[in-house]
């Protein structure tokens, strides 16, 4: 896999997460997703997030040494599945999401994978970013349950 430190930006640094980062990652994800969960009548389950954390490749996005985001990915067949792109409030709309998506694309290409996949709540404004970056609604999948859309893009 490509080393994220090989592609630093003036402001963003990605580093591999450890279990010490779990509390930050879970809190950020729960806080960012809480409104969607409530609106779509879902229940946050820390145990499921922990299980997913353990089977994912997890990264922490930092600015000047401060953790501001989380990127979680898994390789599934010939796809790289983006599990989470989470950015702390106050750091959004500054290129952090684009940076993490671009890193994911580079990793997928370096691994010889053919596509990237992600899921997004239908009312999440991040879906506009995904569309701008070439993601499209995928065909019928389990995630097409009304509140969540499955999106993919070619590598």
Pick out its properties:
alpha+beta; 155 residues; 4 helices; Aminopeptidase; seven-stranded mixed sheet; globular
Describe this structure in words.
- This protein has 155 residues and is of the alpha+beta class.
- The protein has a single domain, classed as Aminopeptidase (3-Layer(aba) Sandwich).
- 32% of the residues lie in helices and 30% in strands.
- The protein is built from 4 helices and 7 strands.
- The protein has helices spanning 22-39, 46-55, 96-110, 126-132; strands spanning 13-16, 57-63, 66-76, 79-87, 115-121, 136-137, 148-154.
- It has a 7-stranded mixed sheet, sandwiched between helices.
- The two termini are 15 Å apart.
Describe, in short, the structure shown.
The chain is an alpha+beta fold and 155 residues long.
């Amino acid at each position: 896999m490509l080393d994220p430190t090989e592609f630093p930006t003036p402001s963003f640094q990605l580093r591999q997460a450890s279990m010490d980062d779990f509390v930050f990652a879970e809190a950020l994800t729960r806080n960012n997703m809480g409104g969607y969960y409530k609106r779509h009548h879902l229940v946050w389950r820390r145990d499921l997030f922990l299980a997913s954390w353990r089977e994912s490749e997890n990264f922490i996005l930092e600015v000047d040494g401060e953790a501001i985001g989380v990127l979680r990915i898994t390789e599934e067949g010939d796809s790289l599945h983006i599990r989470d792109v989470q950015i702390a409030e106050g750091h959004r709309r500054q290129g952090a999401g684009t940076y993490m998506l671009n890193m994911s694309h580079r990793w997928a290409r370096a691994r010889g994978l053919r596509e990237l996949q992600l899921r997004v709540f239908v009312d999440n404004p991040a879906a506009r970013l995904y569309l701008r970056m070439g993601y499209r609604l995928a065909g019928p999948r389990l995630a097409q349950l009304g509140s969540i859309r499955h999106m993919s893009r070619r590598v």
